């Protein structure tokens, strides 16, 4: 961060990318810098709490619930340098513009900046929902003060989440296992997952059959299916109860469930027909386009189309917003501005023609979900003229997401799609077949965008089903008949997309909360990804059971939705935030007292156990080392660990008995190692199947083990395969150029080749043990891939950096081309021509990054430090308690700023006597 010249105007934003984009539009007398997100927060751990407050009963939570819920705000150590630099910039500024995002969180960041920097010059709040030149200058001429109601609402949300999480989570540690957590939104999401999984566990499959025929009329063939027989309708999947797999009761008299034997009988009766057309119905259908994206629908569609997690989608959307390509990406409004509607209509006219443009613009207004409150536009391309995806200069994930947003926005203003649906019924005696057709008479918005599919042209072809021009009375020949057996399916598990959709529908959470909620559920081990589905684990089931049994309101969707409504009322100034927090947390019915009462009555042995209805003879429990299952026997209870990969709905009695048998009797050896004569076992543990050489004894406390990779399993692996696995890592030979050893091995992410600290994954189509030295060397010579699998493709070698004395490379990365030297990376400006970048220009692009790193010497020192041998683990020593007499002393002692009680932005009282006084409520700034 460079120091500003005297009299310059300072603009503060959240991120360097956003600062870089805004800087391009502003005059030279403006300095734009970033605060890197929040500069203050409630303490994240005990080490963040100043010594002065550690012994106070509320210190662990970081909120003084007895004194108006006054929060203890700390500046994290990694933000002290940023705060110091912003203070220096603020000293020389003539005006300060706080240009953080236009939502509650952005308002809160600006408020904290104001509280910490304490500027002596005019401060203006500058808001915009897109980063374009017009939007920035409009925001500069329409500044306002910080909205205290929005700040209060965000603070209330933050404090409420802290109170719920920090009060319930320690109870889970005591009663179930350490490290678990509960949260206001996440616990409801886990409940939804668990209820769906319990429905799957209770589900009983039932079978049914269907009969289809290939018919022809005047040489044209088409498909039909049997829909009625013997005056009863043929039962299909939709006619069965999703909760129990049986035919719905109201359909028992009107529908028949066919078996394969029934289908064979009907087939014989039909012979070759003919079928006679008895009814033909044509119906015009008009389909409207979907509204523009809001945060949740963008996450859902990116999940369907690209398989992205919510956090992945938001990361790419954040980058597009900060680079000025799209409007603000956290919104629950489907509204488009007049500017956006005009830009859309202009492009529709230019790209598709008049017939695709409605006579009047489509107005969507706000999204009709519970508690929609964000005052933004929908997510759309930025500016008064939309940049077409192919002209945006984007690549990789950013191109894919921008293309999706552009298409959805354009299609939302296009004409309806007009289709004709045709239904033809054909009879033979008492058997009725039906054929359905559909033709697209005018594609309308489908020409630009088809929801859930990527290629509009292909999608149009896929949607049309053409039937020959039959009429009532025509006879049709049966070319072939096919019967098919089916099983009813249990309710589908939630995906991230459908779970977000459900939370939004219930009014739970807000645009900014969905992505972190999904991540927390997975990170805490409450659910696993199975393909794109979210499957709850035994840990998730146990935690949900405890919360539902003892704190039902905190996992109740209605109660959680009402919390969101209350926070919205605080944001609009209708409700007092402190009074609301008191009703939730304090008093005889508040969370604080309720947890104290329940802590005395909850039995840990009961809390960590769950029974599944089809397996009532087994007790599933969660402990310190994960889930395990127990079976009662004459000699007592015997238990065995459950592999983390084993899901509750999929485990069977055979699986359990096999785990317990191995635990009781030990596994039979596959054979013996000819070199050591030690037994070789195939076992299953918490982390899945593995092979082991030798017995586990006091003398051999760490026998050699190796994971069994798919498609192998503990049941089908041979002793020869096991010995091959146990031979890993294995030296293939030496690299012909470097002379270093080349090895093959099997790690967390699968098979690999290795030379020193350089690794390459072995492709899935290659056998690990058939890799030759030459093939391994070829793999090592390939460009290294990142964790997301995208190769860091070298586009051009620029030359040697004059200061760093290392090679500069031009690379093609996930977010577009960038320059790299040593550990420095710098994105290439989008208007830069890659072929024209020479050494001088590359050094200039890298210069800001080099300055941030502290110069060439600091960069080289950092690189040298990184190459040092891993230090020996040291025994932690108890830190001496510093003598702190004031908040200022804490700042000096910890090199961190701590601001406590929010009594008009003042410091926390320094003695217990002061704490007994009522805290002053947040005052509006003028």
Briefly characterize the structure:
With 926 residues, the chain is of the alpha+beta class. 33% of the residues lie in helices and 22% in strands. Strand 9 and strand 10 (232-234) form a beta hairpin.
What proportion of the residues is helical, as a percent range? 25-40%
CATH architecture of the largest domain: 3-Layer(aba) Sandwich
Largest sheet: 6 strands, antiparallel, barrel
Average the pLDDT over all residues and give the rounded result: 84
How many discrete domains? Answer: 6
Please state the CA-atom Rg, rounded to the nearest Å: 33 Å
Low confidence ranges? 1-5, 367-374, 453-462, 869-926
Structure write-up:
The protein is of the alpha+beta class and 926 residues long. It folds into 6 domains: 8-148 and 880-915, Rossmann fold; 155-203 and 492-610, Topoisomerase I, domain 2 (Orthogonal Bundle); 207-288 and 419-487, Topoisomerase I, domain 3; 295-415, Topoisomerase I, domain 4 (Orthogonal Bundle), CATH 1.10.290.10; 671-781, no CATH class; 793-867, no CATH class. The protein is 33% helix and 22% strand. A 6-stranded antiparallel beta barrel has the order 8-9-14-13-12-15. Strands 2-1-6-7 form a 4-stranded parallel beta sheet. A hairpin with a 6-residue loop joins strand 30 (793-800) and strand 31. Helix 6 (186-202) packs across helix 15 (538-550) and helix 8 (295-306) runs antiparallel to helix 13. The longest helix has 28 residues, at 148-175.
